[in-house]
Amino acid sequence: MNGPRLLCATVTLMAGLAACSGGQQSQEADPPTSSAVAPETTTTTEAPTTTTAPPPTTTTIPGLGPGARGPEVRALEQRLSELRYDPGRIDGVFDATTGHAVLAFQKVNAMARTSRATPDVVAAATRAKPPAPLLASGGATRVEIDLKRQVLFLWSDGALTRILPVSTGNGKRYCVQGECATAVTPGGSYRVGQKIRGLRVSRLGQLYNPLYFNGGIAIHGASSVPAQPASHGCVRIPMSASLSFFDAVPSGTPVYVFGGPRAPVPFSEAAPGEAAPGPPPPTLPDPTPVPPPASPPPASPPPLLPPLVP
Q1: Which of 284, 285, 266 is nearest to 276 (CA)?
Q2: Per-residue pLDDT averaged across 258-284, rounded?
Q3: Which residue of 59, 76, 160, 243 has the smallest Cβ count within 10 Å?
């Protein structure tokens, strides 16, 4: 009798245990709550940084240049004039003409071609002497052009009277109106031919007071006369000197160009393989008409003889 009761009690106990273990779901414990403490913040007020720009650097170029004035410039102009360079008016103002004279001096003396009278240029000018002739036997009045140094020497009545900077053919190929050529200033011996006072406009540009000496090649004034060769073949000289040079060089004056493959020789001598280049043909005056001789007077009739007396 006790067996069924025991079984029932056992089942009831097991059911209670099952209800405790499965009827209510277990919950995990919440993690411990930690008090979050905000970090301390420190506000630092910094003074604004002010950057001071350095003062502009002024580069002082040594020597005398465009715009310089005063007794030093006047003394330089005077000295260059004594050496037969062409500084223009001796007025103590360093202008473009003064710069051309300085450039010519630098070229003759193998110095840097800056057109500025730096201390070494001034010192060299103080002790310099006029350059020697390139062709002393070339005639009392002549023009000598040095292609390597890019300078021109004018000799008048046996004395050196002018040294000018020049710019000659640059050796480059060029084409104009379908015709091409090389920009070369040939060396050799020539004579001044046609002269044109004033402006001459050609296919290659503007020529001021040109003096032609080798076909279409002329010595002429130009607005640009750089330190290096830059022309199509002509010999550029400064505008400030072009008119006075034009007036000082008559037609027929020998022009000797040095530095090319063909060396110049005096007109009294012959180049190798050539006949001696003589003087230009003289200009003969117009012939004066000679009146025809007068007709001789008519002959007188023979005298009458007296009749014969028998």
Answers
A1: 266
A2: 69
A3: 59
